[in-house]
Every structure is written in structure tokens, then in C-alpha cells.
């Protein structure tokens, strides 16, 4: 692998972590265009790097990936293979599709399938965010309402009459205000911890199997399972179109996407 100083490694790390779907699609399309015009893979990557950097006269984020791919093609062994390099830059399922294309000799089709897969995943993520807008907005509104109630409304009303004499809705509001005063911070911390644990459990919680199987029937684990199932089917379709057998497709998915294969098995 190429030698880099700390600032260069940091810059590549940032580019790698921010290499989002629109940038990946742009990279796939540019590479596919050159390969369709009968350019060898290494030559196509070098031409892309030279175009983006004006033949080395300026820096471009896409050139980082192109350079890594060129180096991996030059060494082509172990952790310096193209498949491994791609798995560091792009999601594992997209790396699996491109890897299948390299192995089957149909990388042009694989890049097209990777683009389709990226677009489909973006549509799934957009649908999820649209579903999450209402509960998140409701939570924000409730938090704001409790803040105003506790800092503005209750203190003003307590100047008019003693809170001990309040009943009905007003008494409930006062009790809620007291609860927020005494336990609001604790509840906020517990909510953050529970949210973090749930987020961690979605891709990582595997055992005991019976408990995870039960959890997969309720939200949010059921939503995660549906997303993984849809992603799995999209990947299988892409790999089969890349002229891979069913067994080889499953082996490639297991190689690149062990968590996804387990959750959809």
C-alpha cells in the first residue's frame, strides 16, 4: 500500500466515511462508461484519476478511491486485493456485487447492478426517514411543551393559588411538573441509554436465538428485519444477474455481509 503521512491518512479516512450514495453512483457510472468503451480496468481507473486531479496538479476526493483501487490491482493479494479495498470504501453488499462481477468477468453489468442497488437502498432509507418524522416531531413537541409548562405556566399559576388545592387537569399538570423537576434528567438519560442499546442491538444482537427471533416480530427489530430481507433479495438478484450461481452468490454474501445473511436466514 502507498505510504502516507498523518494528514493524508486523516484526509482519506474522512473521504472514505463521507463517500455517500450519490458519490458512489457517480464513481460507478464513470467507471462503467470507460469499461464499456473497451478500456482495461486499471487503465480506466488511471484515466479517471488523471481527469479528476488534472494529471496530479490538484487533489480530488474521488482520486483517493481510484488510487487505492489501482494499488490493489497492482499488488492483488490478501488485504491488498480489489475486493478488500472496495469493502473499505463502499457498503459490503455493493462490494459483494462488484466482486462477483470481477470474478465472473461481467464487471460492467455488476457496476450497473451496484448503481441500481444503491438507488433502491436510498429509496428504502428515505421511506424510513419519512416514517420517523412524525414520532420524532411529536417527541420534540412534547419536550417543548413540558419545558414551557415547567418554567412558565406552573410558576405563574402558583402565584394565583396554592398548587396543593389544584385538582382535575390542573392538578395533573402540577404533578407532571413536579415529576419533570425531580426525575426529568434521569428519564432523559434512561431514554438516551435505551435508544443507544436498541440501535446497537439491531445489527449486533444475535443470541439467545429464541429471544432475538421473538424480538424480530416487534418494532423496531421487525422493521430492521424487513429492511435486511429486502436488501438481501436485491443483492441476490444482482449477483444472479452477474452470472453467479445461487451457491456462489450465497458464499459471496456470506464473505462480505455475514450479518445480513444471518438475519435473513
UniProtKB/TrEMBL annotation:
InterPro entries: GspF/PilC (IPR003004), T2SS_GspF_dom (IPR018076), T2SS_GspF_sf (IPR042094). It is a multi-pass membrane protein. Its main location: membrane. Keywords: Cell membrane, Membrane, Transmembrane, Transmembrane helix. Pfam families: T2SSF. It comes from the Bacteria. It is found in: Cell membrane. GO terms for cellular component: plasma membrane. The chain crosses the membrane at residues 131-149, 183-202. Residues 27-151 form the Type II secretion system protein GspF domain. Belongs to the GSP F family. This is PilR protein.
Amino acid at each position: 500500500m502507498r505510504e502516507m503521512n498523518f494528514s493524508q491518512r486523516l484526509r482519506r479516512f474522512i473521504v472514505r466515511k463521507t463517500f455517500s450514495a450519490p458519490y458512489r453512483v457517480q464513481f460507478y457510472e464513470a467507471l462503467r462508461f470507460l469499461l464499456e468503451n473497451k478500456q482495461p480496468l486499471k487503465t480506466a481507473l488511471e484515466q479517471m484519476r488523471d481527469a479528476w486531479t488534472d494529471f496530479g496538479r490538484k487533489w480530488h476526493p474521488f482520486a483517493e478511491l481510484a488510487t487505492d483501487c489501482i494499488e490493489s490491482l497492482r499488488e492483488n493479494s490478501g488485504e491488498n486485493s480489489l475486493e478488500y479495498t472496495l469493502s473499505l470504501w463502499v457498503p459490503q453488499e455493493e462490494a459483494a456485487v462488484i466482486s462477483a462481477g470481477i470474478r465472473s468477468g461481467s464487471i460492467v453489468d455488476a457496476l450497473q447492478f451496484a448503481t441500481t442497488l444503491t438507488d433502491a437502498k436510498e429509496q428504502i432509507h428515505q421511506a424510513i426517514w419519512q416514517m420517523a418524522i412524525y414520532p420524532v416531531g411529536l417527541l420534540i413537541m412534547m419536550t417543548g411543551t413540558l419545558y414551557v409548562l415547567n418554567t412558565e405556566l406552573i410558576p405563574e399559576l402558583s402565584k394565583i393559588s396554592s398548587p396543593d388545592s389544584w385538582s382535575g387537569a390542573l392538578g395533573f399538570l402540577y404533578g407532571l411538573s413536579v415529576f419533570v423537576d425531580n426525575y426529568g434528567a434521569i428519564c432523559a438519560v434512561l431514554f438516551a441509554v435505551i435508544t443507544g442499546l436498541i440501535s446497537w442491538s439491531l445489527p449486533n444482537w444475535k443470541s439467545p436465538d429464541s429471544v432475538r427471533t421473538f424480538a424480530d416480530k416487534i418494532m423496531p427489530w421487525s422493521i430492521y428485519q424487513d429492511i435486511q430481507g429486502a436488501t438481501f433479495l436485491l443483492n441476490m438478484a444482482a449477483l444472479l444477474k452477474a452470472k453467479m450461481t445461487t451457491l456462489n452468490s450465497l458464499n459471496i454474501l456470506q464473505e462480505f455481509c455475514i450479518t445480513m445473511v444471518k438475519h435473513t436466514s
